[in-house]
Amino acid sequence: MQQFNWNEIPYFEFEALAGNGRIQHAVFTRQGGVSPVPFASLNLSVSVPDEKARVYANRRRAYGLYGRDTDT
Length: 72
Hints:
alpha+beta
């Protein structure tokens, strides 16, 4: 895996997938988001008791990596 940083959000990509040109993917850490402890910032899940507004803000940040809208 290779490590990258976009908009202060660290993420990783698998080299085997990144090179095929058809698959967009990222493995995110918990850094670079807006959620407080204990969600430790880049929480993307609504299945925990984090505020949904924060989760959606985090998703916008993460999805922005590939120019995706959170509706996709």
